[in-house]
């Protein structure tokens, strides 16, 4: 396995692009990236693993949704710097519930983007509330600010987004002072939403926040703050 992994040209980049194709139909399902560890895990387990640039970690396809990809065949291109995998797709490949991530077609005569429909577009994929909301917020970047509140925040920029976070944090404090549990939950949801807007604006997946919180387990608040000053 080591000789196979070493055959790839990792000098160009620590991440190798991987094209994912359905084994039987040859339909292109998605494009992802792999580092050496992701490729090694894929070859060992025969289930697809990738390196998520947004989550900044290794992830197994289907780890939340259960829509795993079983490896059938693997190809290396002529320059040894990209990979093609043929897989058995369990469920769907795209977080939107579509079979393929490539469902937006550009019409060449008008350069307009048209969404292709699939028979199984109604499939529901459970990625958790936070991850699903984050992807929805990313999609809103292309929405009309006149019809989308989130898109209007993006259009106004980081100052407007930051102002809303401060405003919503103040509302949480006021609800806390009033000792109103329902209002605390409501205002905290607003704060969480606007914080996720900020993360999406900065292209930071909320999973990175989870990783940072996990890093702090067993570390006192005093020591953690001191470690920041040392950096």
TrEMBL record:
Region annotated Phosphoribosyl-AMP cyclohydrolase, chain positions: 1-129
Biological process, per Gene Ontology: L-histidine biosynthetic process
Stretch list, region Phosphoribosyl-ATP pyrophosphohydrolase: 130-231
Location relative to the cell: Cytoplasm
EC number(s) recorded for this UniProt protein: 3.5.4.19, 3.6.1.31
GO cellular-component term (any): cytoplasm
Name by which UniProt lists this protein: Histidine biosynthesis bifunctional protein HisIE
Source organism per UniProt: Helicobacter fennelliae MRY12-0050
High-level lineage: Bacteria, Pseudomonadati, Campylobacterota, Epsilonproteobacteria, Campylobacterales
